[in-house]
Amino acid sequence: MSKEHWAELGDGRRARVFRAAVLNRVLEHFGLSAQAWAGSQYVLRDRKGGTAVVSDLGALWVEAERLHGAPLDPLAADLLAALES
Amino acid sequence: MKTPVVLVTGFLGSGKTTLIARLLAHPELGETAVIVNELGEVGIDHHLLRRVDERTVLLANGCVCCTLRDDLATELRDLLDRRDAGEIPHFSRVVVETTGIADPTPIVNTLLADPLVPHHYELQTVVATVDGQHGLAGDEAVKQVAAADTLVLTKPDLAASAALDQLEGRLERINPTAPVLRVVHGDVDPATLLEHHADPRLPGRAAPAREPAHGHGESAVAAIALELDASVDWIAFGVWLTMLLQARGADVLRVKGLLDVGGDGPLLVNCVQHAVHPPVHLDAWPDDDHRSRLVFIGRGFTAAALEASLRSFSRLSPEG
Fold first, then answer.
1. Nearest CA in chain A to B62
2. Which residue out of A16, A24, A75 would a mutagenesis test of the B interface target, given it has the greatest number of B Cβ atoms within 10 Å?
3. Which of A7, B178, B223, B306 is 20 to 30 Å from B241 at the Cα level?
4. Structural domain of residue B262, as residue ranges?
């Protein structure tokens, strides 16, 4: 029995499209991208051809960290500067 | 209807078992099953007492707080099966007592993230006992305090008044979202103890600092508060918080608060490290202040950094 991720409870298609847009603005800074996939899944890609399919938003950051090789810190000043530009 | 679970945590000798034994004597807690890890010196005389041997399952991401307590999940499922089969007396609540040195997060995680348990049980509240005579000892005790919805200061009759006030002040600095009850020999009204699950008490009686204390280990753990004037985009917030918990989960012991997401009432957000309660939409705000307010308990971050980051993420949403 699967369990919906807390951040995705009751999601519709519109919410998933919006979330993917937010995710991609953030992931871009780390050389990654995400595509909303079937159900709550995402396909995560890096620029070297690395790919991972993740089950939900929580799992996405685990895989993103693995592909990037370091934690993706939302408080990092360079990320915030990139998001503001 | 899901069966409520009350988690009682607290350091060795801080009076967990005394508290539970006295609570079970109240008629309104009669239909309660109790799960313990160890049978302590203070016996619990109860017809539905179960002892489990801690058995943990580490998940693929290797995070300790995301560990699932397989023993607890199995016991909870077995209790349901046997209740439904009429093999044991009916129960309408479960009390889980942690070991004294336990980090309570894996238990919270099991109740919220196990594939089966959350379909049948809901975590009603987390109570942490703190020894009024000996105070807090070590990182685990601080994690227990951070995870609590209510703090029970035990043995206040054995401690000097000034020392108790000092300890209570420290507890409020670590977790201003949890009321502190001074309780002698476990003598407390069950309703008082159990009612705080939905009471966010934010930002708390003592306003948390904007900046964390300096230091290392448990001494660096403090609560900081964010208050946001503008409403928060829920989708951007979900992306931001999941990213924050992954990057800094070991240092973010608790997030609790009310979020203005544009509706009539706020959204109640409540996380214990990576274990996140399903967000609850409240019908109305608890007072006239309708601003988002979040308390972060942990170390290594400032309110200014959290606020700047959350604002940047909020602006990313197509609707933000």
1. A62
2. A75
3. B178
4. 217-314
